[in-house]
Request: fold
Amino acid sequence: MDVNWTNQDGGADMGERIETVSDFGEIRLLNEIILPCVTSGENSINDDCAHLTMAGKTLLWSMDPCPTPVANWFGKATPEVWGCYTAAINLSDIAASGGTPLGMLVSIEMPDDTPVSFIKGFQDGLLSMLNSVDAKLYGGNVKSSKKFSATGTIIGTPGENPVTRKTTSKDVLLYLIGPCGDFWAAVVANRYGAGNLRSETVTSIDRAMCFPVPQVSAGRLLSNLPFSVACMDCSDGPANSLYQLARINQLDIQLASDVIWPLRQELLELLSRNGIRVENACYSFGDWQLACLVPSDSKDEFERSLSGYTLTKLGSGTPGLGRVTTDDGRFLQLDMINQNFSSGYNSIENLDDLIQRYMRNPIFQ
Reply:
């Protein structure tokens, strides 16, 4: 359908500028326009999944389109990579809701001259990711289009305790579950050269860039803890997630300036040689972590329960106005967080602009 953006009374107001979604940005657009119209259960309107009760059963339900993999700029986005990303971005929502994925439906649009081999590879990547978490492909749709795209909708079941983005605790600690910095190390190595990185390290970070791993098993564990943990998927990056968690829970978050990042020394040196701040690499999107708010008095049990996962302690949160700062007095730069319609990843058209946007300017200042 074509939409003509004129005055609905029959004429255009030539002297009046029409407000666009880029004026709002994704977060404001959701909070002010879209979410007020949404009905869901468990007070979960702003969560990674809708919490629905249907026929006496509670389900988790979400949907996401496949983003264009950054690997595409390096000629490494195979059909399998596209399939993996389509599954991973949806599975990550289930993980952040503490659920068990059941299965997906996928709608694929593609040009008429798409090679059948591409679709076979896409299906292989999709099914490999789904099979790794015992989820099924339920079906979907195919449609002729001018460009390829894939959108998935996923269904899961919640764990013993609901996991949402909200916490009732007024004194929390902040953690990331999952690797940090491997994705951007891969981008830097592919763009500027791997230098003296070991071959196994290059293989490892390339795999992190091409085949992200959603933290599904860790998410399930969160729902079985004897205390409540607020959680959010980091597909848009930890900086975005922390900002949203701070606002939703009216917390002032203070991050440590000396976070011990789980990044091997040779990758820290790679980033440094190329003028990349480790903070930027670890707080920006790409590594698919879960961001968690944990009651301070449950610290030991949380760390013990998650000891089998890559766990990074970031800082603490106390009642406040939703600010995100560091303990050396710097503020999160809101124009650096990744969000649609505000020069986010999906609006960037070349690799050097991507690196400039997310790596060359300080994320805290």
